[in-house]
Design goal:
Blueprint lengths: L6 H18 L20 E5 L7 H16 L4 E5 L7 H10 L4 E5 H5 L17 H8 L2 H9 L2 H4 L1 E16 L14 E4 L3 H10 L2 E4 L5 H6 L5 E4 L1 H6 L8 E17 H5 L3 H35 L3 E4 L2 H9 L1 H5 L3 H12 L3
Helix pairs in contact: 1-12, 2-12
């Protein structure tokens, strides 16, 4: 049984569908597949790979997206497979490429492996907060070429993204207020050169480790700290072994929704319009759910003994912002970064 939909978001999506369908046409001068109008055949149930649980905001928003498609298209729907049922993100990425899976949620680091330009939106401090992030990643003037860059090479279209929220440091040994407090400390990070450099900018030493091993890694002293959002901190019960959360807010994390390009181009103009409107409702609902889940996670972790501490933001800002100069290596990347930063003003 599907979750209840957010009525205002779904109503807005329905209105957007009518507008997009009216504007989309189908008899213009352009090629129909390039403009989102494909064969116009009857739809089918699409399989979507997700690495989160059925209680996670991502699952709820995507499940409601599927309901919207059922009600507003000619036979299209989505079956969300949570908990890495269809494979971990790296595997799901390949399965979408070859068409074995239709859609997947993947992290920015996964797409960075296919096109290094995606590194820009993985940089610390590129986004000020979640609202800034969402305005950038769903602005086709900024992201259009980037999101289409994998279509010819990998048969993948990037549709947009879900926020992972602002990420901060949590430790086993006490509050952190400046980078000096992390000197000599091992910080668990994702396996990425950028994330290792980010840990160094925070003042510690980056230690790549599988996420599933982190609880015992913190408990046994293999690492002294980690970085993540409050929702993951609480749901994975890391507050039990690392009860000191410090608001470095060094990175606003990002997941992308990807789809098999051939499948997307097979939709009729009307169904494509409904699909895009339903997706907009989904990421807007997800952002709202994420805000609620974050507050619940903070309260839950505090009840479990965690403490939350503000940091000296200025002390962290300069070394984190310096990473842009190190990891931006092309003119295209610089243009993406400049556009993202300009959107904050």
């Amino acid at each position: 049984m599907r979750h209840r939909k957010n009525a205002s978001l779904i109503a807005g999506a329905a209105a957007a569908t009518l507008l997009l369908a009216a504007c989309g046409g189908g008899d213009g001068d352009g090629d129909s597949s390039a403009n989102g109008g494909g064969g116009g055949g009857e739809g089918r149930t699409m399989r979507l790979a997700l690495n989160q649980t059925e209680e996670h905001p991502s699952y709820i928003a995507l499940d409601n997206f599927g309901t919207y498609l059922e009600e507003n298209t000619d036979g299209w729907s989505i079956d969300v497979f949570p908990n890495e049922t269809l494979g971990a993100q790296a595997e799901a990425l390949q399965l979408v490429s070859d068409g074995s899976v239709d859609l997947a949620i993947v992290s920015g680091t996964q797409l960075e492996n296919l096109n290094e330009d995606f590194v820009v939106f993985n940089l610390p401090k590129v986004f000020d907060d979640v609202d800034h992030q969402m305005s950038v990643i769903h602005d086709p003037e900024i992201t259009g070429d980037l999101y289409a860059s994998l279509e010819d090479s990998n048969n993948i279209t990037v549709l947009g993204g879900f926020t992972q929220g602002a990420r901060s440091i949590y430790t086993t040994f006490g509050p952190v207020e400046t980078p000096e407090d992390l000197a000599g400390k091992k910080i668990r990070v994702q396996e990425s050169d950028l994330h290792i450099a980010m840990a160094e900018a925070l003042g510690g030493a980056g230690t790549p480790m599988a996420y599933g091993e982190l609880y015992t890694g913190l408990q046994g002293g293999v690492v002294d700290a980690a970085e993540n959002n409050e929702v993951s901190y609480f749901t994975q019960r890391h507050y039990e072994v690392a009860p000191y959360w410090s608001y470095t807010n060094h990175l606003v994390g990002l997941d992308y929704l990807i789809i098999n390009t051939e499948l997307l181009n097979s939709m009729s103009d009307e169904d494509r319009a409904a699909f895009e409107a339903g997706w907009q409702a989904a990421y807007e609902e997800h952002t709202q759910l994420w805000e609620e889940a974050t507050q619940e996670a903070i309260e839950g972790a505090q009840a479990g003994g965690a403490t939350f501490t503000e940091v000296d933001e200025a002390a962290f800002a300069e070394p984190l912002e310096a990473l842009a100069a190190e990891f931006i290596t092309t003119e295209t990347q610089q243009q993406l970064y400049d556009a993202a930063r300009a959107a904050a003003n």
